[in-house]
Amino acid sequence: MKTKVTELLNIEYPIIMGGMAWAGTAKLAAAVSEAGALGIIGSGSMTPDILREEIKKAKKLTSKPIGVNILLLNPYTDDLVKVAIEEGASAITFGAGNPAKYIPELKEHGIKVIPVVASDSLAKLVERSGADAVIAEGMESGGHIGEVTTIVLVNKVARSVKIPVIAAGGIADGRSMAAAFALGAEGVQMGTRFVATEEAEVHEEYKKRIVKASIRDTVVTGAKLGHPARVIKTPFAKKIVEIETKDFEEAERLLLGSLRRAVLEGDVKSGSFMAGQSAGLVNDIKPVKEVIADIMREFEETLNHICEEKGTWLGG
Ligand SMILES: Cc1cc2nc3c(=O)[nH]c(=O)nc-3n(C[C@H](O)[C@H](O)[C@H](O)COP(=O)(O)O)c2cc1C
Fold this sequence. Notes:
Layout: H1 4-9, E1 15-17, H2 26-34, E2 39-42, H3 48-61, E3 66-71, H4 77-86, E4 91-95, H5 103-108, E5 112-117, H6 120-129, E6 134-137, E7 143-144, H7 150-160, E8 165-168, H8 174-182, E9 187-190, H9 192-195, H10 204-212, E10 218-221, E11 229-232, H11 235-243, H12 248-255, H13 258-265, H14 288-313
Parallel strand pairs: 1-9, 2-3, 3-4, 4-5, 5-6, 6-8, 8-9
Antiparallel strand pairs: 7-11, 10-11
Bound molecules: flavin mononucleotide.
């Protein structure tokens, strides 16, 4: 299947893995790339040296393109970008801002620059700065989020920029992928769906929580602290929401390291199980290859179904 996104990234299917601190390891990223999508190593939890090792590890597992996610707020950003260039990442997705200052050097090395945006104004700004594509990430997403839903954001961003748009947030199957394409996206990014796979190196408790979750089982913590993040609704997450209005220092203290505790230890008492509303669409833990094959099959079925049914709807 060809779209501007598959052409840009030299991949088979227009699907990319969301950058995920702690959960976005070399093993999972390589499995995603090997299955024909773009695997992304999440550097949010890594020092530059660890990122270097992870890219090397992924490259031993696959010869296909591998990307890196870098959070612009990260104090190591300059060095993480340097490592991504030296180790031959094929694309960098940037969270939290405009990576303008890195774009000329990345372009020189043929590395595609794809910022994550939560508004059409930021999408236009990064396009002017020279980004190759944008990820429009709606508030249904797992992890840190903006304020606008995917259905409104992707539509608006796709009407606002000429570079390809990749939709993120709430996408976990072929139907949601088809919906994103209807809104103008030419690719999709998924986080939560890839956490519930055999290759994901997260604690079994984390995977189970995603599979068990209904569409109403997430909550946003940290909104009052200025860093809203969508997580599975556990007693710990509810406690954060309750105290963050009263004692922000205590809330910050409890949140510190909480994603690590969820990913590595499956710690339900003090861990943040970041996941999107799409957790309610995920009912199984399966190999990455199957996830992607199933999505592509359902995506095609959905498009065909819409075309076939159209005559009936119009009374034809
Ligand atoms: C466990 C987890 C960690 C995440 N960490 C990051 C991160 O470090 N950087 C980033 O840009 N996005 C991060 N995200 C957001 C994902 O990249 C992606 O955009 C999001 O998961 C898409 O929504 P979905 O969960 O409905 O698929 C994270 C998401 C999850 C679930």
